[in-house]
């Protein structure tokens, strides 16, 4: 789960199956006697909202998309960024849906699916790497004198009064 994600299972259950991922600032909510389920390898993009729905195996919900009550997203389906999936929508497997309201625009190609699988693998590996590197630390009581900063390539010209090391 990414930073800022909110999971509200106060009415029903939230189920995240094996190697599903939920990115930064997502909101997942359940309804009375209604669960929200992300099946195996489901990939939920930054800022998406899932409101007691089901996301199929190996599906992708794009950034800032909304999937409403009782909607079902088929397996290997992509919901494009900023799309709105209506209450009760039944989205078939293997398609791209986009818009507000979301509608099927085409079947997915093998290249589309390969790109989605790569993205999911990257997030699974990121989670493993983060867990492997976690160490307990004490908070600093003050900023360390001379603490090094991360160096980044400067892609824009700095202001004339600012020196970049």
From TrEMBL:
Source organism superkingdom: Bacteria
Spans through the membrane: none
Originating organism: Quisquiliibacterium transsilvanicum
Name the record gives this protein: Phenylacetic acid degradation protein
InterPro entries linked: Hexapep, Transf_Hexapept/Carb_Anhydrase, Trimer_LpxA-like_sf
